[in-house]
């Protein structure tokens, strides 16, 4: 992607686009896939799934489906003749209400690919031309599946986690993530979604509390002191965000684990499945998911902001909102750990979620803008 090198001077940070339709929130805290509970990375897809996928997309009988990961969805690598040709995504029951919401995501992905320099995967239509495969298994359960073209390269998170990667390299990538995010926000501000476009909201009640989409952070194993800090932090963040309203369609999970980097160093944005209507700087908070407690994170936050500002301006009020959203996101992801498999994260990252959350929220209560102080701790 080639981002503009100067920021517009008059465009507001919040895109004027209003959501055509805010879809109802799916049932909160949907349990992990029971039917995939025994699968591990690299395992073949079960026969009932394999058969319907090959038929729906008209794939050769020798095509293999092997598990990549289970999180909000189950993703499978599609191989034909020993070569990867696509990625299949099977949606977590209850996470997205219906096929229309999934189709909306795919329409945006296609539009981004056609209208911008941001690299995204190809959306693979079924052999009947539709985008979403809706089917019922032998137990009567309803499923939705979609397929994307295979993206060559490595996951950026894995590249940056290599022991010999310098912090300056990581900072440069976070600046690129910020610029890429801003390019998506620019697109949303100018794009007219197709008729019937519907995605869910990421408002505060969808992110926090008993009705949250991913689980209530209060169910985590917190000490009384940690719980008190988190309660006060949530109240403080909510107070900052009380008058803000959803401002646009966001990726909602644009972080290194959802970016592929090819041999030429080019990034491809993947996994738009969490996209929805929210404050645009929800994408800032998402970029730092799971690592807010690390000593190097303020440097990455500063780099993200610098990259974003090469495309779009940010005001002092925006920074206040971004800091509050980072607290909300950290609490949301703590709730996420209460409804997801432990192997969805590296062991050290999983173990850091409770103490790290208390540390992050405590810093916010002491210095609300601590995250923007490069080398703050």
Automatic annotation (TrEMBL):
<feature type="region of interest" description="Disordered">
    <location>
        <begin position="1"/>
        <end position="30"/>
    </location>
</feature>
<dbReference type="InterPro" id="IPR011009">
    <property type="entry name" value="Kinase-like_dom_sf"/>
</dbReference>
<dbReference type="Pfam" id="PF01636">
    <property type="entry name" value="APH"/>
</dbReference>
<dbReference type="GO" id="GO:0009088">
    <property type="term" value="P:threonine biosynthetic process"/>
</dbReference>
<dbReference type="InterPro" id="IPR002575">
    <property type="entry name" value="Aminoglycoside_PTrfase"/>
</dbReference>
<protein>
    <submittedName>
        <fullName>Ser/Thr protein kinase RdoA (MazF antagonist)</fullName>
    </submittedName>
</protein>
<keyword id="KW-0808">Transferase</keyword>
<feature type="domain" description="Aminoglycoside phosphotransferase">
    <location>
        <begin position="71"/>
        <end position="312"/>
    </location>
</feature>
<comment type="similarity">
    <text>Belongs to the pseudomonas-type ThrB family.</text>
</comment>
<feature type="compositionally biased region" description="Low complexity">
    <location>
        <begin position="1"/>
        <end position="28"/>
    </location>
</feature>
<dbReference type="GO" id="GO:0004413">
    <property type="term" value="F:homoserine kinase activity"/>
</dbReference>
<dbReference type="InterPro" id="IPR050249">
    <property type="entry name" value="Pseudomonas-type_ThrB"/>
</dbReference>
<keyword id="KW-0418">Kinase</keyword>
């Amino acid at each position: 992607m080639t981002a503009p090198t100067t920021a517009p001077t008059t465009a507001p940070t919040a895109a004027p686009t209003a959501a055509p339709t805010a879809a109802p929130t799916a049932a909160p805290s949907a349990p992990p896939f029971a039917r995939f509970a025994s699968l591990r990375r690299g395992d073949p897809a079960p026969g009932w799934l394999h058969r319907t996928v090959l038929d729906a997309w008209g794939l050769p009988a020798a095509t293999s489906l092997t598990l990549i990961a289970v999180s909000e969805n189950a993703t499978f690598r599609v191989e034909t003749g020993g070569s990867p040709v696509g990625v299949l995504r099977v949606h977590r029951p209850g996470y997205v209400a219906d096929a229309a919401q999934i189709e909306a995501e795919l329409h945006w992905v296609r539009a981004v690919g056609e209208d911008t320099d941001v690299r995204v995967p190809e959306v693979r239509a079924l052999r009947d031309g539709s985008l979403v495969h809706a089917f019922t298994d032998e137990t009567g359960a309803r499923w939705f599946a979609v397929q994307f073209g295979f993206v060559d390269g490595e996951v950026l998170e894995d590249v940056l986690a290599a022991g010999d990667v310098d912090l300056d390299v990581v900072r440069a990538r976070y600046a690129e993530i910020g610029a890429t995010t801003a390019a998506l926000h620019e697109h949303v501000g100018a794009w007219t979604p197709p008729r019937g476009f519907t995605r869910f909201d990421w408002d505060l009640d969808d992110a926090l509390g008993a009705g949250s989409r991913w689980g209530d952070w209060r169910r985590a194993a917190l000490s009384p002191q940690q719980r008190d800090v988190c309660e006060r932090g949530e109240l403080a963040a909510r107070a900052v965000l009380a008058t803000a309203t959803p401002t646009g369609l966001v990726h909602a999970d644009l972080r290194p684990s959802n970016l592929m980097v090819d041999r030429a160093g080019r990034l491809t944005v993947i996994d738009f499945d969490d996209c929805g209507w929210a404050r645009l700087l929800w994408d800032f908070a998402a970029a730092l998911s799971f690592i807010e407690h690390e000593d190097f994170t303020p440097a990455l936050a500063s780099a993200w902001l610098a990259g974003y500002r090469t495309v779009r301006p940010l005001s002092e009020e925006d920074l206040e909102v971004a800091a509050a959203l980072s607290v909300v996101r950290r609490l949301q992801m703590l709730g996420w750990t209460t409804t997801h498999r432990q192997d969805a994260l590296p062991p050290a990252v999983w173990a850091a979620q409770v103490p790290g959350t208390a540390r992050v929220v405590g810093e916010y209560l002491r210095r609300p803008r601590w995250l923007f102080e490069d080398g703050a701790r």
